[in-house]
Each structure stands twice: as structure tokens, then as C-alpha cells.
Amino acid sequence: MASTPPNSTLPLTQRLAAYGCSTVIRLDEKLTSAEQLDYLDLLPKQSNHTPILTAVAEHQGAALLYLVDATSTDVRSDAASLAAARRQLANRSDPAWLGVLRPGSLEIFPISFQETRDSQPVRIIEERSQTAPLFFQSLVHGTFEENHRLHGTDYVFNKIFDLLTRMTNDFVPTEGKGKLEALEVLSMAGRALFFRFLIDRRIVLENERDQICSAADELKDAFSSADKAAQTSAWLDATFNGDFLPLIDESIPADDRKAREAEYLRFFRRTERLAGKRVFVHLHAILHGWRATGETVQTELDWDDFDFAHIPVGVLSQVYESFSHRADPLTARDTSVHYTPRLIAGLMVEQAFAATKQKASARVLDSSCGAGIFLVLAFRRLVREHWIGDQRPKTAVIQSILYNQLRGFDISESALRLA
Predict the structure, then answer these.
(1) In this predicted model, what pLDDT tens digit does every residue of 265-277 receive, in sequence order?
(2) Which of 48, 107, 145, 264 is the Cys-Cys partner for 100 at CB 3.0 to 4.6 Å?
């Protein structure tokens, strides 16, 4: 007697339970629940947008398995779309895999920037096999036999840190006095990185370029010369209330854009006299994701794949911790600067809230906040606590959380410049 084929019409959570997945969060619909907050970058922005993924399976708040339901017409599961999804997910630096759910089986693909449409699954798990219910636990405990392929976790950090290090080495020798101050290099690079973040997240658009930097040919050209860097820096100060990666006299009001632009122009021209135009080659390279070589730029290993719309704040915190030892070594050593990995920071925040009775009204103080990873995670948790049923918190509530429930301090200037 023939066995009954697996039922692909069962609810998604029930089908995934056959592979040991218990905590499943939908990613194929607009924001409807607090659990989706950590995946805002992956949710469809409009109801008519095709979702990238169907869901994610978590363990203790960590994403371990992203999922595409190939039996659904709502998400693309062709080879090219799956390769694009894996490269996009690599930006998030999660210790995760991509699973493609088909009738009766689950195909497992690695997540990295090197994936192509020709990539084959590293494992196909048959739903009716005896080991299928144990699969997700093998991800939880790190016993999955293909775990050696998980080499994307620190890749984004290494590349960003490499850009900062290359720029710093050019202008700030590890021994002796350099052409520029290390904290100045940190602030200039930080501004370029932040502007790249704004571009990739589509917070700034190409049709706004004239308002930001009229001298630029495109948004990613906004730091390629002294006058362009001055215009863009003045806009950043006016838009983000000043005191942002400081480079000039902060007594000039942030909304006096003309005066600040003139002061920035003096700063960047002085920088050009001291270090040459090469400093702008580096800033231009950060925006475009190119390696700066000589007086030109050279593209490097598919940096177009890097998308700051999906790079988590924890990666920038990791860069801060590592770079602060170079930019301000005495302070970093004397104050014991240490980076807390995002997953560990998340677990500590969850444990702190678990011990709190009135979670929604909790006030959070991080007296050595570094680049702010604990504060960001605490902010997200507070937003969740203010989520009542299917009613998401309004803008006024979110602003109240930011201004009244979160505080951070640090004695390191380089920390405050990136926080």
C-alpha cells in the first residue's frame, strides 16, 4: 500500500514542526506583530511587494533558519531569487541558514556573499526521515555537520574594519605623530559610513541630492572633495541636530548651515593641505565600497553586495570596539573597552527585562554605553512592551521611550562619536 504523500497544505508552523522548528516568525507580510521588529529590513514595504522570505525560525531570539516556502506563489523560489536572498541575508551577520520548504522536504543552503544561482543545497532533509524532527536542534547545539560553512558571521565587520584601518594607516602611523589626528579620521570615516547607511536604507534619495550637496554628481559622490564634504557635513549636522561625529567648533548652531559649511570647508581644506587629496579618495571609497589605491579607486570583491539596509547596529559596535584601540589606545586600554557580541548583548537585555515587573515603564541606564548596542536592543524591547495586541505604538510613544526611558554615558570620546 502506497504511503500518503506529505501534505503541503498544512499551516506553515505545523509543516516546520516536522523539522523541529518551534518559534516561527512570519516575514511575508507587513509589520503586524512585535516579534517582527528585529526583521523590519526583510518585511515587504507595501502590500503589493513580493516578499523576499516566508519566515524565520528562532532560538532564544537568535535567527538560525530563514525560510522560503516554495509551495507558495507569494514568494519567489527560483535559483536566481534564492541566490540574491542568500547574499542579502549575509549582510545581517546571523549564524543562520536558508531553508527552502518543498513538498516532503527541506533544502538547506548556506548564507554568504559568494552564493550564485548555480549553488546546490548542502543538505536535503526528507520530512518523513527519522532525523527530521532533530534537525533544528542540531542548529541550536551547533552539531549540524555542515556548520563549517558558516563563515559569514564576521565578514561584514572585517570589511568595514578593513576600510577604517586602511584609511587610518595612511594618515596615522601606529608609532609617532601622523598627518592627522586619529579621532579626526574616525569622525570623517564615520560620517561617510553613516551617509552610506542613509543611502542604502533609502532615507535619502537621489532626487534630494541638490538639497544635501549640490556640488555632487550623485549621492555617493558627496564626500569626494573638500567642498562636497563640507556641504554634506553641514547638512548632516542640520538634519541630525548637530553634535554628530564632531570635526569643527560646536559653538556654531547646528541650524546655521551656511556658517557650519564655511567652517567645514576650512577644516577639509586644511586636511587636504596636510594629507593630500587621498583622504577624499578614502571617503569616496567608503561610500562606493571600493578599495582606495594610489590616487584612484579599485573595486573589491563584490562590495555592491554590501547593503547597510541590512547590516545590524551590532556590527558597527564591533567596529567601534576594535577601532577605538587604534584611534585612542590609552583610553581604550585604561577604560577596558570591550565589544559585547550582539547575541550575548541581546540575551543580557532579555534577562534584565525578565526580572522587571513593570516592563513597559522600565528605565534603562548604560553607564558605559560604548557604541550603544545595549541601548538599541533595550529600545527595541521597550517598543515591544508598548505593543498592545495588534496596536503598534504611535510615534509619540516611541519618542517618549527615546527621551524618557533610555540613557547612556561613556568617558571615551571615540565611543560617543559613534554611539
Answers:
(1) 999 999 999 989 9
(2) 107
- Torsion sign over Cα 284, 289, 292, 293: negative
C-alpha cell at 151: 563563515
Q: Based on C-alpha coordinates, what's the Rg of the chain? A: 23
98-110 average pLDDT score: 95
Report yes or no: 104 and 5 within 8 Å, Cβ to Cβ.
Answer: yes
Q: Which three cell numbers stand for residue 202?
A: 533609502
CA–CA separation, 318 and 371 (whole Å):
8
Q: How far apart are CA 178 and CA 135, in angstroms?
A: 54
In the chain, what's the furthest Cα-to-Cα distance? 85
Q: What backbone torsions phi and psi does residue 226 show, to the nearest 5 degrees?
A: -60, -45
pTM for the whole structure: 0.79
User: Comparing C-alpha atoms, which of 83, 116, 80, 82 is closest to residue 102?
Assistant: 82
Do 250 and 238 form a contact (C-beta atoms < 8 A)?
Answer: no
The three cell numbers locating residue 329: 589606545
Q: Above pLDDT 90, what percent of the chain?
A: 35
Q: Contact at 8 Å (CB) between 268 and 276?
A: no
